[in-house]
Amino acid sequence: MKSCMHLLLCFLLLIKTTTSQSIIKTLPGYPGPLPFKLETGYISVGAEDEIELFYYFIESERDPETDPLLFWHTGGPGCSGLSGLLIEIGPLAFDLESFDGSFPSLVINPYSWTKIASIIFIDSPIGTGFSYSNKSNAYLSCDTKSANANYLFLRKWLLKHPKFLKNRLYVAGDSYGGKIATMVALEIAKGNEAGLQPRMLLQGYIIGNSRTGNEDSNERIPYAHRMALISDEYFELAKSGCHGEYVNSDPNNYKCQYALELIRECTKLINDIHILEPRCRYMSPRPNDILSGQLFLEDDPLDLLVLSRKDKPWCRNHNYVPIYVWANNETVQEALHIKKGTITSWTRCNMTIVYMNMAYKEDVKSIFRHHQLLNEKGYQALAYSGDHDMYVPYLSTLKWIRALNLTVDDKWRPWYVGGQVAGYTEKYKNYNQAFITFATVKGAGHIAPEYKPKECLAMIDRWLSLFPL
What we know:
Distance between the termini: 49 Å
GO biological process, one term: secondary metabolic process
Keywords: Carboxypeptidase, Glycoprotein, Hydrolase, Protease, Signal
Organism: Handroanthus impetiginosus
CATH class of the domain at 18-214 and 364-464: Alpha Beta
Shape: globular
């Protein structure tokens, strides 16, 4: 009886939480009513509900009653869910061809993942996008706090949207968001085991070019060799001199340091986010060290706005200028029901969260154990990698998967879209039939759906439908 009363009390406390939500029927830049259901809002989390996490929710355009629910985490840390919505996998995109620096137009993305799933895009951690707090100390965050806050957010969100409690749930994210998504998935699994309410129908998790830990950077040199960016001679010199440890190498090992300097010279002007695309120029020099363990950060929006018309050749970051113009527009913020006075300037990725190394701490150095526990508990996983990403190369993803010592269920083979090779896949399983599907996305960079939207939609649709890629 006491146990039941305790669960009821927790349930009531969750329901009483401070929330606000609005249905958005039109958006500036898009002609006419939106052809999908969009909801935005805030949910309070934290010990005293001092953190207001902003979200965008889009119902599946196919069948929201039976289609799965995805809880999406954009990278960073500090990159807005709006970037995931408008640049990666959402139903709207900017008309880049017509953009001339003035207010941008929005067009339909025919390869949106909302064609097959309902998606919650969250601005997390605190200080990201439109999320805010009235308490300055609330902006101090870390991996653990972020994952716990996002789990609490989802519990409260589902209690406000109980019809989605019966939908299959997948936690998803790319880049650093993949790390947090994995941690949130494990929190949900533990919460279900502990009887926390509401119980969620967690099926698994989806991660793209996801950070695992500091060891990711160590695979950049083998990747650079495979992609013919460094010679056999330089690679063998580094292997023998550094004994396979490139990031945390001994500074007194002169043979190793000499080899690494040769490699740096070969790769310093390579765009590690997509090795075939031009590297951006900046008003102030940016280091590009193949061995840097620094987290991926958004470039200074001032650089983007000032140099977008001057910088030749084209740079992918120029595609991000419209989102700055759009999201900082007062009419747009009113349409999204942003609380006035809560932020001074919207950024796609909040550099101050990590760049100053003050507000956010990477307190979880590796999530290998998280992957291991989720696999042992029977949850399914899709781990995909743009194969032209050197920042978190596909080799680093394969390394942690193969370290789990699983059985290969489906050997390395191509997967196809429209009769063309879209990438390569390999499937692993453990003793309780929990599968990890690995897939490369051919020609894609760090954020695979941004580069290959058609192929990525086909990939996620097949995987969610339990079909082979």
